[in-house]
Amino acid sequence: MKIGKILNNNVVVIYQGKTEKIVMGCGIAFKKKVGDSIDENNIDKVFALENKDTNTKLQQLLKDIPMEYVEVSEKIIEYARTKAERNLNDFIYITLLDHMHMAIIRQREGICVKNIMLWDIKKFYREEFQIGLKALDIIEEAFDVRLPEDEAGFIALHIVNAQMDDNYNGIQEIGEVTKLIHQIVNIVKYHFQMKFDEESVYYHRFVTHLKFFALRLFQKNNYEGQQDEDLLALVKTKYQSAYECTLKITSYIASSYSYTVSEEEQLYLTIHIEKAIQQNR
Fold first, then answer.
1. Residues 176 and 106 sit within 8 Å (Cβ to Cβ)
2. Residues 118 and 160: beta-carbon distance below 8 Å
3. In the sheet that 45-47 helps form, which strands lie side by side, from edge to edge?
4. Dihedral sign of CA atoms 258, 215, 95, 158 in order
5. Chain centroid to CA 168: how far?
6. Which of 208, 226, 227, 253 is deepest in the core (most CB within 10 A)?
7. What is the pLDDT of residues 135-182, one digit of tens each?
8. DSSP-H helix ranges across the chain
């Protein structure tokens, strides 16, 4: 295994065929130069990211960020992978590492950045927020620095972001998604003149569905399922009030976002609304 590029004493790049890999290990490049071999027994971590741009950006970060931050970031990511319901894309290695490194520096300098979305994050991204809180424990154990709860919210957003596909535009779009979720939830509340049981598993599933529905909306990407006209007709009849609520949502989205909610999306919205409000009846 020969060195193709040296990023610092602990990080090198190797080439295996057309594959570029980032290899990490304590002192792995000490007194080495490009073309030298490295001892595979000294390798702690290998990154083989598929996206070339992501790979390049990670290399840039690793030049300046100490190895212990990478190790802690990796520990948080692995914990998140076991807890999140969806896979995390490779960009989390960049966004989380960079954010965590800067957050610790800010905290040590006495600089506190408030998270204006914290309430929304707790409400709509509950699982990711719990992962964020665990991340604070991991960081404190490693660096003897306790980051504020606001940072658990920021970490949660990075995890939400990493669950999305490559067409996703990042945390700025999460703000728009969260706003739309608020609007839809309010339409349902006013339609049924009720408050949700936010501890209900059905409410949680409803919000999760809205999250990904909103993402499709902003990406102008309609749900393309197999249309089941008989099922839709049954749902319209059986869950009449929930379907009427769905039509209100459909009308609101058409006028506010110029997006046509397909019949398949109306079907699933209706079912989720019905399940979410059934405990209030």
1. no
2. no
3. 3-8, 11-16, 19-24, 45-47
4. positive
5. 10
6. 253
7. 999 999 999 999 999 999 999 988 988 877 554 455 556 788 888 999
8. 52-64, 67-83, 92-108, 118-124, 126-143, 149-162, 171-192, 201-218, 229-238, 240-257, 263-277
